[in-house]
Amino acid sequence: MGTALPLLLLNIxxxxxxxxxxxxxxxxxxxxxxxxxxxxxxxxxxxxxxxxGATKDALRDPWVKQNRKQIAKIDCSRMVVLPxxxxxxxxxxxxxxxxxDFEKRITGATYEEIAEAGGGIRSSIAAVRKATKPFLVQRxxxxxxxxxxxxxxxxxxxxxxxxxxxxxxxxxxxxRAAARAWPGSVVATLLGAHVVPPEYQxxxxxYVELVCNEMIPQTAKKKLAQFVDVFCDQGAFTAAETERxxxxxxxxxxxxxxxxxxxxxxxxxxxxxxxxxxxxxMDHVANPDIRALAAGNTVATxxxxxxxxxxxxxxxxxxxxxxxxVPVALASDYNPGTSPTLSIPMAMSLACTHMKMTPAEAIxxxxxxxxWSLRVADRKGSLEPGKDADLAVFDVRDYREIAYWxxxxxxxxxIANGMVVADSGQMR
Length: 428
Ligand code: NIG
Ligand code: FE
Fold this sequence. Notes:
By secondary structure, the chain is of the alpha/beta class.
């Protein structure tokens, strides 16, 4: 990995700082406040942001004047600069795309029908179990690099296609090894409770015991993950099983998050005592639960890439969430079954066109609120002195273009923890 050199990004016509006067995740009208500075500069030292302000003030700074030879200056005239994206929901530890499922859906089968017939998540298990750890490290590394090329600097990465003690630990170790060699930041999540694997079919209780009594304790002991996730839905795990798994996670000092309401509605009240960081998907949610979320800090993480790729007509009710005061985040849900994209700008485009979020709301959801959902908002998600030097530079004149152009990558430079993590060469 490189080193964090002193960096000065300057002459930035639009710098989206996302700084906020309020503590806590963004909700309601605050989601639209990007705190934009014009003709701005950002100075980064030792991997941290030290100042954010006007270009002329940065150039007058005595420290900058004295050390100008060792500072790498990056002229961002004609660029938009914003905090690196926080992709708070990804499944990068898989071996192969699921092309049979893809074609079956084209001819009319649903995600649930394919899963019931033995496709879906279960069809990704065998290859991950067979894969060597170096192979999986390589897969995760390639994903992280491609994410960085699209402006992402912090990634939540889940296990969940091994579904045995050994292969879940192997998956988390692959995430750890890839993360150590990548300049960006990774938050790991154990998703041992993705589905019941074939050898436990009809014995889900036994499998939940394996998750609670072996996977979670080993994950905590080896510090392999910060979060435990559960796919709580029909065909996966019940609400009662999810509560058991959340209780085991909490007992072992791990935080909780869950795939919730993707295929069917589950009432959320029983889980709130675990203070989950996030409920993800949220296509189906009861009105009283929307009110309960508005009163707390659990983030609703929306992943419209999954709706798009499954060819669904309906999308999560983002407007209803935002208008009710629920904090929403936006993530890619990068995975081989429902969302084979690692582009946050693509998720932003879908958020605008299909969930009627504004470009400003989509940016806040994919930066500062993603950081809240991973409990790293003290370091990530906005450009403020003291925070990590995570920045994305886009070749656009107006921030709204980031969500407007789709199917092309306008990100030209990405800096993570003060290091260049992706460079298209267009800035030179
Ligand atoms: O977020 N819903 C559960 N997990 C993934 C899908 C995983 C897969 O189909 O491989 C999701 O959509
Ligand atoms: Fe997912």
